[in-house]
Please model this.
Amino acid sequence: MTDRADDLVATASQTVGPFFDFGLTTPNAALGQMAGPDTPGERIRLRIRVYDGEGAVVPDAVVELWHADASAAFPGVWGRQGTDADGACEFHTVRPGAAEGASHINVCLFARGLLRHIFTRIYFAGDPALSADPVLALVPEARRGTLMAHADGDTWVFELRLQGEHETVFFDL
Amino acid sequence: MPSYEKSQPPLLYPPYQSTRLRAPSRPLIQIPARYSDLSQPVYGHLPIGADDNDLTVHGASGSPQGERIIVAGRLVDEDGRPVPHALIEIWQTNAAGRYPHVRDTHPAPLDPNFTGAGRTETDAEGRYSFTTIKPGAYPWRNHPNAWRPAHIHFSIFGTSFLTRLVTQMFFPGDPLFGQDPVLQSIHDERARARLVSQFDLELTQPEWALGYRFDLVVRGANSTPFEERA
Model:
């Protein structure tokens, strides 16, 4: 069955389900390492923790990241990790450059209970360029904090809350 | 301009219980295309081994149980252009409806010769093909006597996140569609029907495997933001 070109509609999403690890994440553990030894830029370690609407951790999410390189250029890099029993996953990458606005990492999230993937962004708390970021300017001021990663020693930590109090901002792209 | 009539599922769909605590409750904030990295290319695709698309030869001690099937199709975007060299990953239950996963407690037997996962890349014309075993339905306690119809999970990734898609492929004639809230979350009947593969005698290999065709469409360059489409 083929539709004519102007009748084509994107295939519907369905949930990734709870049992993806043997297909998507376990065989691809190296996808948490987004920067090679020759990749230019400041090395960063990023820990992302996912919570549901009751504040319980989400141990079965697929977190994918993509971002520009250290000089703000694309093609960029992407990575993938599954959350662990604590709802957490870790990536090693380089701090993205930013030509316009502030350095940010794009997030694409899949999970049981999500019928389609959702997008958000991770910014870096304390970045002086935050006030000039055109996307942050579209977010109600009271919710901008949900898009900030905070430094905890040598690790940037980002709390992703799917629903409820302090719900992370999600974007329509 | 194509019309997008309820062809994507919503985020909150209470009959699918898990959405109640995981669906974002606030409206999505639209990012204008000029600020969005959605269409930006990213590289670093996974290495594809020669047998990665044949799930029937990954067993340590022989062939897996069940009906051998070919699943093949073409990946295009909404403008009708083939998407070449796109990464397609699949995963599924075995013939008995059991996942090789620690949290699957369904009392159906594991198959030591079926690891249940595969990957491939589309060719220059956007075509792909897998050989696998027909998966089984399985119970999942979403509601009393809840059964997922037999399905194969698909993950599609072209060169940008614009083409990113995770979906499920179903089999024609399955009596379970009407009671499956995951599938029924899609409001438009034609959009649901597009997730059902078609038996294709041309794909069948005599004395070897039945064939099912499953074509896929990802978002195109003239794509509108998500909330306008659903």
